[in-house]
């Protein structure tokens, strides 16, 4: 049930509880409150690199892109016929191209394989592969993009912004590229600003990972919970809703009962609901549990009831999440 809201550090928590190693996913830009630190000031100096021209290519499908036109946005994606994940992403790239074909966005798929290999594959894919395709037989494009940006795995995509700079690169799946293209289509994407926000988010994520590692290491060593409240306070100061909600839930459900800081878990859960303006069922569920575990059963029932009603009104509500919310509500009611 928690997955819908808490997605940024679930992996971190699982690994930390098992072995004290940090492997958190990165929060999306804008999800977290930026750090007001010297590190942030340094990251504000980020300068994007000018996109290298697409040289040495043999164009297999679509109009050749001889240069990146100002005012237009391009996705330069590297793939191969033998790559399973690449094949999986191809229909999605086609959908994106059709969606934004009148918005000045061009998607270019580049493979280092020969035309003799690429063409039969394209024919097999048919309408599912309907965007510009090129062969990079000499590996020039791969060197200018994949090697230049230390990318070793495919599929890998690079977004060239309307000013001709590489504003983003990464896996074409996962949602971040789609989000950027949506902004670009609306004329609201600033490559340098986005890069700064992403760097800030990554810096904050590293800070949170370090603090989580510190906290859960203390938990595994069975240190009295009052000894690591300072660490919890530092995590609270980040005002990162997803991280805080995960933290409160883990304290309430996975930390050994004899060492659970229920008072602090309640403080954290209440903070999350303030940050999310009581509009997130999963956060309200955590808060209700914190109230319940602290003996505030009446308020727990009230909060959980509100969470259930809110979830019912959400179009994308997970049925399993709703059932769990209801189950917890009955549990709280039974204790009255």
Walkthrough of the structure:
The protein is elongated and about 70 Å long. It is built from 13 helices and seven strands. The N terminus is likely disordered. Helix 1 runs parallel beside helix 7, helix 7 runs antiparallel to helix 8 and helix 11 runs antiparallel to helix 12. It has two domains: 177 residues, Serine Threonine Protein Phosphatase 5, Tetratricopeptide repeat; 112 residues, Glutaredoxin (3-Layer(aba) Sandwich). By secondary structure, it is an alpha/beta fold. Strand 6 and strand 7 form a beta hairpin. Helix content is 52%, strand content 10%. The chain has a seven-stranded mixed sheet with strand order 1-7-6-3-4-5-2, sandwiched between helices.
Q: Domains counted in the coordinates: how many?
A: 2
Average pLDDT rating: 85
Strand order of the largest sheet: 1-7-6-3-4-5-2
Q: State the CATH superfamily name of the largest domain.
A: Tetratricopeptide repeat domain
State the CATH architecture of the largest domain.
Alpha Horseshoe
Mind telling me the CATH class of the largest domain?
Mainly Alpha
